[in-house]
Amino acid sequence: MREPLTGWTLGAPATALVALILIAPVGATIADISGGASPFALYQAFFASGFRRTVLWRTVGIATITSAIALVVGFFTALAVSRAPRRWRSVLIVMAVFALLTGVVVRSFAWLIILGRNGILNGFLQWAGITDAPLAMLYTQGAVIVAMVYLFVPLMILTLVGVLEGIPEDLIRAAASLGPSPAATFRQVIFPLAVPGLIVGRSSCPPDPSPPVPPAAAGGERQMVMGTFLHQQAMVRLDWPAASTTAAIAVAVTIAVVLAMTRLARRLNPAAT
Amino acid sequence: MQMRLPPALIVFTVLVYLFLMGPLVIVIGASLSDTSYSTFPPKGLTLRWFERIFEMAAFRRTIVTSLQIAVLAIGVALVIGIPATDALNRYRIHLPGWLSALYVQPVLVPEIVMGFSLLRSVAVGMDWPIWPPPLAGHTLIELHSCIRVVSASPVSFDFAIEEAAISLGAPPVRTFFTVVLPNIRAGVIAAFILAFITSVNGVSVSLFLTGPGVSTLPIQILACVEQFFDPVIASVAVRLCCTNLVAVGGPLSPDGPILRPL
User: Fold this and answer.
1) N or C: where does chain A have the smaller number of CB atoms within 10 Å of the terminal CB?
2) In this structure, is residue A1 part of a structural domain?
3) B147, B157, B176, B245 from B182: Cα distances, Å
């Protein structure tokens, strides 16, 4: 009979930490509507502002495009890695881990050197005679997407290699022995078997839709997203009630994404969740 | 037997890996350049930017702060995370389902929101001194990785041996240290590494909680990126990268403490 109590006691410090350091402060942020006349005034102000709506849609847009690209790139790369000869597989996995372990700041900084006005890419394009003058590549939406894809691809490869390695070799061999093209084997056998794991893998480590660093580095002030906008409101303009509204909307977006993923995973593979 | 990979897929994979590794090679190259701006390929080779790191007080100080916060936060996270993992594994049927969901909450809240909320409620609201808020924020994030990684390791752990120890009269604390801990050691070390890297490289939470007096290395790098473009930043970046490698490389090598017992 003292078992449930032991369980609670062992978990108590962790529970307390999450409650005090996460739930309470974030709850207070979301509940902060002190800056407006009515409870929803700040939200109305948010959605009434064309600039803020742009920031929100840009965030959602960039997150969607980034996830889609990272997913496709990661999937095919993981497929090749999981079916590569053993020795190569280890090398490729270690390289992906290495890329993942290089911090966000370092990996975003690299794109400044590459995409800058006097960067490598502009230097190359001019050397090759493709362009005459340096192109403005930094501080565009494309730059933010490239920097974020770069951030997510290693994670995607590592998650999906696990999923794809779980597909029994026998099944693929059996399918191949029936003589279809590799594309047909892929479409009819590998892909359907990988989908549930793919979504579960994706929902178990959802990307933060508003990481501030790649947009701050590669997008600057011109490509503001929720993360950078929140930082600007809170730390530059010191408008905390408005920043709280932005924060609450960012949380809502994240939760919506995670719930959608989980639901999709459950529908496709009831056993997995 | 291996499935034959279509050549197109091999070419694609090679391109993806070039995309992954290229920028890292470029940062390393830029850090060695003997010019006053970051460039690649490096013009002339020099290590003077690496020496500059230690001449710049801001970097020296933030490197120390980053390491201190990382080690302290992980220590706390492991001390409270391991019992929580134990509770989740052993008493799952007695505990409500939302409890384990609670521990993964940090995933549902963007880190930047967490950082801002801690600033609002704790750092300013409760007027805490400058040190504890970043520490608390980091501990929370590390707690999440600790619980996730450590709880993956007792999957192969047979709880019968723990019960055997208890039935032989070992007190719970001693059982934990002599029976449970050695068996989940690999998970604990893996959690430490993962948490260390997350912490040393973490930006979003620190962004709000660092100020005059306390700053972490990634924040310092970010601040410098906005101000100047000289190779010293590339060399700090390389140095941070090496710290990560050392943290991981040692224990993950085939003879390291993680893979050896497997």
Assistant:
1) N
2) no
3) 17, 10, 9, 25
A160 touches chain B (CB under 8 A): no
Tell whether A22 is covered by a domain.
no
Instruction: Please count the structural domains in chain A.
Output: 1
Contact A71, A195 (CB under 8 A): no
Domains of chain B with CATH codes: 56-252 (1.10.3720.10)
Each of the 262 residues of chain B gets a pLDDT tens digit; together they read: 455 678 888 999 999 999 999 888 888 888 888 777 777 777 777 788 788 777 777 788 888 888 888 889 999 999 998 888 878 777 777 777 777 777 766 667 888 888 888 888 877 777 777 778 888 888 888 888 788 777 766 555 677 787 888 888 888 788 888 888 887 787 788 788 878 887 887 787 788 887 666 788 888 887 777 666 677 777 887 887 777 777 766 655 545 544 444 3
Beta strands in chain B (DSSP E): none
The CATH number of the domain holding residue A146 is 1.10.3720.10
Distance to chain B for A80, nearest Cα, Å:
7
Domain assignment present for residue A79? The answer is yes
Interface with chain B: mutation pick from A109, A191, A224, A239, highest number of B CBs within 10 Å: A109
Taking the CB of residue B171, how many other CB atoms lie within 10 A of it?
Answer: 9
A109 closest CA partner among A218, A229, A220:
A218
- Residue B170 CA: distances (Å) to CA of B164, B173, B175: 9, 8, 6
A222 located within any domain: yes
Q: Tell me the residue range of the domain where A165 lies.
A: 39-268
